[in-house]
Structures are given as C-alpha cells and as structure tokens.
Design brief:
By secondary structure, this protein is an all-alpha fold. It has eleven helices and two strands, in the order H-H-H-H-H-H-H-H-H-H-E-E-H. The chain has a single domain, classed as Vanadium-containing Chloroperoxidase, domain 1, CATH 1.20.144. Helix 5 packs antiparallel against helix 6, helix 6 runs antiparallel to helix 8 and helix 6 runs antiparallel to helix 10.
C-alpha cells in the first residue's frame, strides 16, 4: 500500500511538474481565431457592451414578468451552473487515480489510467478556474443585479464592493457553464452538439430567474470558454491530451489506447503484469 501511494505521489508530482514546466511546443503559426482566448474575450466584451446599451433594459423588464410557474424549472436548470456534479465526479476520479498500482499493471493499462486522470484534471481545472476567474472579475466590476433595477437602474456599478447584489458582470454560473461545456466538448468531441446547447441553456436560465442581465451571461460564457481554451493550449504545448493538426486547430489525442487498456483491466486481471 505504501509503495503504491509512493508511486502515485511520484506520478502526480511528475504531472504537475509537466504542466508548470516551459512549453515544449510553440503556438501554431495559423491558429483559428475562435480558438484564441484573447480574441474570444475581445469579441464577447464588445457584444456585451452593445447589449448593455441596447437590450439589457427591455429584456430586464421582460424577465420581471416571467411566469412564476416556470421559475422552478429555470431554477433547476440554473443550479447545474454551479458545477458541483462535474467537480465532484472529476475530483473522485483524481483521488482514485492516486491508488492505481502502476507497478503491477501492464503499460497499456497504466497509459489508459493516466489519460483518464489527465482528462479529469483538465475538466476540473477548467470548471474551477473559469468560475473563480469570473467571481474575482465580477466583484471587481461591481455591476448591480436586475433585482436592483427600480433603485439603481440597469447600468449601475459599484466596483470592489464585494457585495453579491453588485456582482452581476460577468455571470459566474455562465462562466462555469461555458467552462463545463467547452472542456467536455474538447474531451468528448463527438458529444459537442449536446454539451454546447446545454451550457447555453444554463446561461439563459440565469436571466429567467432574474439573477443576471443578458450581457452578464454572454460575458460569463466567454470567460469560461476562454479560460478552458487557454488551459487546453497549455496542455497541448506540453504534449498532454491535445495536439495541433495541420490547420493549427486543437484536437484531442485518440482515446483508443485508453479504452483498450481499461478493457484489459476489466477482464479479470488480464491487465496485471506477469510476476517476474
């Protein structure tokens, strides 16, 4: 047991060292604009400012009249934006990876287990980092929430108050939703048509429950997506999980070896190395 824990600690330390080490690859010369975090933040910031001036107020009035019968449904959807389920799931996977007896398993199985741990770490860091970034920024900006429309209007700011009533822009739930949707879409690209709409629905629900203006949720989504893409580039430039194709696009490394290794592990011990 102690030997297994020692090996696991050594693997985790090597993983952290690899993440924080200097990048072994440079950025591709031709990166798609929508895979550049800075470009995404800039575009969405401009769109958010336009929404503030043109659409936030009328949409805010409409949100106040949203049918109360439908609010429980919107509340259930918006609670998904807290990211608790995804953080717990990936956290448990990371904890379990500590107890993998790598010295007793075949290399193929170890590679599979390490790949799953890396994917769990990527999703966990994306969701946690995106949410924390938005939380810090929105408290620094200090925009009033829609609940204060009658007293403060739709364009009121009190920076650095660190008061929840003045922490609307950008939306933290929307940032978490954007980070969840983008990280899951990058790890499971075939399910992207499912994850992206669900994340967008969480953003819309923040408006339906009266917690945020449309510009808040739009910018929150951008923060979560941009943070996740930044982290994906960090991984790709260190040859972890992702790589760049000929067009400079981010791609996930194939998961066939992961599935093959796990299948061996589940076949009643076939995945264990033969004793010497």
């Amino acid at each position: 047991m102690n030997r297994a824990l020692s090996e696991s600690r050594r693997r985790m330390a090597a993983g952290f060292e690899r993440v924080f080490s200097p990048a072994s690859l440079s950025f591709p010369q031709h990166r798609p604009p929508l895979e550049r975090p800075g470009m995404i933040v800039s575009i969405y910031l401009l769109l958010s400012v336009l929404l503030m001036w043109g659409a936030d107020h009328p949409l805010g009035l409409w949100m106040k009249d949203f049918p109360s019968e439908l609010r429980p449904v919107a509340k259930w959807i918006t609670d998904l934006g807290e990211g608790v389920e995804i953080l717990v799931t990936t956290g448990v996977l990371l904890i379990l990876s500590v107890f993998v007896p790598s010295s007793r398993l075949r290399r193929r199985v170890v590679v599979g287990a390490n790949s799953i741990a890396a994917a769990a770490a990527f999703i966990f860091l994306s969701v946690a980092g995106g949410g924390l970034t938005a939380s810090l920024v929105k408290n620094m900006i200090g925009r009033a929430r829609p609940s204060l429309l009658d007293t403060h209007g739709y364009f009121s700011f009190q920076p650095f108050t660190f008061d929840s009533d003045f922490a609307a822009f950008p939306s933290g739930h929307s940032a978490t939703a954007g980070a969840m949707a983008m990280s899951l879409a990058l790890v499971f690209p075939r399910l992207r048509p499912l994850f992206i709409p669900v994340g967008a629905l969480i953003c819309i629900s923040r408006q339906l429950v009266g917690a945020h203006w449309p510009s808040d949720t739009l910018m929150g989504w951008a923060v979560g997506v941009a943070f996740t893409l930044w982290l994906a580039h960090v991984f790709a430039r260190r040859r972890m999980m992702f790589f760049y194709d000929r067009d400079g696009c981010l791609r996930r490394k194939t998961g066939r070896r992961v599935l093959a290794g796990l299948w061996e592990a589940m076949r009643g011990g076939v995945g264990f190395a033969k004793p010497v």
